[in-house]
Amino acid sequence: MKTILLIVMFAIFLNPFAGISQELMNGQLIAQKTNDRNEGVSLKRDLIMELKDKRGKTRVRKTVALRKYFGKEKRLVIFYKTPTSVKGTAFLTFDYPDATKDDDQWLYLPALRKTRRISAANRGDYFLGTDLTYEDIKLETKISNNDYNYKTMGREKIDGHDCYVIEAIPKDASIEKELGYSKAKFWIDSQIWMMRKSESWDTAGNFLKTVKVSDIKKVQNIWTIHHINVVNHKTKHQTTFKFENNDYDAALGDDYFTKEALVDGL
Amino acid sequence: MDYKNIYIIAIFYLLIFLSVTKTTYAQEKIKKTLKEKLETSLVVNSDISYEFKTKKNQKSEVILKPEFTYKFTRKSKLIFKGQIYSELQDNLETGTPDENTVSDFSKRLFIGDRTNLELRELYFYTRLRNGLKLSIGKQQIVWGETDGLKLLDIVNPQNFREFLLDDFEDSRIPLWSIKSEFDIQSIGVQLLWIPDKTYHITQDFNAPYFTKSLFKIPPSGVTQELHQADKPTKFFKDSDVGIKFTTFVDGWDISINYLYYYDDLPVFYSRLSQPNTNPTIVINPKYERQQMVGGTFNKVIGSFTFRGELVYVFGQNFISDDPNAHLNIEKSNVYKSALGIDYLKGEYLLSAQLFNEWLVEDITPYNKDTFETNVTFLISKEMLNDNLKAELLWVHSINHKDGYITPQISYWVTTNTQLFLNGNLFYGDDNQLFGQFKDRSRASFGFKWSL
Q1: pLDDT tens string B392-402
Q2: Residue A173 placed within a domain
């Protein structure tokens, strides 16, 4: 018996991570769980964006964001309400469940009264002056199933909540170029499978952004984010997203999620 | 338009408004305060333009744009957009224009020579339970997707006070009309009925942006006599109507459009008269019916967006160079197309467009080739999280080797205040569409403030 115990202890000594790896969940599975969480079928909410530059100049944009699932296809539309300078701007995206099919995106510009198609290949571009990209906006803090290879690094507490820490490396150079990230780290709440923090590095390997998610609470029995802060360490610019009046029971007709509806507004 | 027609329009719109409002109120009532139901905003826009050739200010304008939206329910609203326009030098539209091309209901109210008030838009919008969407009232209806030059965007006429330099949003003249939209399975249908008989506002002979290239210069010793244009007057019979089908299939955005309308420029019928042996060219302009069939498409491939517009106009009239042409006018069907490619990457937008126009019949139009090509290039860059934008638009006629270049830089000082500096540089022959304005090249500086 003594001999067996010694052999086990020796094995653990040789491979100190063996015990931990048994406890840590596979990174891909964690990413999947962030996608599997209940989001409701539809959601209407006010989204307030505060954009602050390195000199402290702040611009505030109030929008109404609608989201609805059409089967497995997700459609998201954002209508800008204030300030007057961007009022009427609207953004629509069709997010297809087939990973091989590019999303379709439109941006309505009221000053031109024109709706522009936006290439999904530009998903790494920044969304209308904020510090999140079009892809970040679409994912709504979920972790992409298809773009990264994941490695679970350990567990840490964020604001008192137990989180898995996973490292994400883009699967290939073209994805890295599209996303604008060479590496990312995500802190995923192990109980509710929501991201509480992320860090990302640009394609040159420089530390780029920190995203902090807070004020997560249940609305109509669905875990809901109320606050996101994004700091761009390169530009020193930061954006705060506040989500208010979340309503999963709002009756959202299908015709809100069309190119024509962007013109009519809410 | 006589007063009988005004009454008919007023009663017609009132009846539709009341019936639709009653229906939508019955559908859904929301108990909100007036403050929650009413959205207000104000935009103040001011700019000064310096003309290089004359070394004088070309314009000093201040524009106030109040806007109100009153939400009756979540699905119905009334939108008001007004405008107070002051051109402090009274240079672009000298004096008080008679606005003969504008219907009585759409005329501006001039206060002196320098200021006018305009009801830009006033319409009621509602979404009914059966999916039908209605917009009733004075509004802008925009078809097409091209930049810089227009092809399909002909539903609303335009004020050419600044030729093509004004923002289309400001130069487009809203019309009293009814727009209804509904879906038949995956096809969107838009129906238009436009009883408003307002046409392009072109400028007088002495205005900076008078488009002289459209008119033949009379031979020496011959005078011209321009008569009042013969405008359509019948309320129903002379209305414009249109239909648009839209769909989205396999990543292709497609629309098919049809418009039965009066051309926004009159046909300048002319004849030589010799009263008391003084040769005179008598011009009798008349607005004529036309039909247009067209469509748009766009598709994203990688980082590129490919888009196009195709238009076929039936029976367009042209001033002729043929001495045998009846009243100096010839008619031809016209095929027009615009193909564009946009490349959007990061903070950069690069866009190029190729416009073609082909007169199908064998005619000899004045100052125009039977096949014409224009190209446009647009480069823009957003910087500092969209605070700063630099842009360059170049419009060039391949046939006539004229065009214009517009560089612009704009900066958001605060959330509500934007400064901008731009230039409009024309080049080419004096007798061509763009080249005729080369003495009008200018630099402008201004600001936009909103509340």
Answers
A1: 999 999 999 99
A2: yes
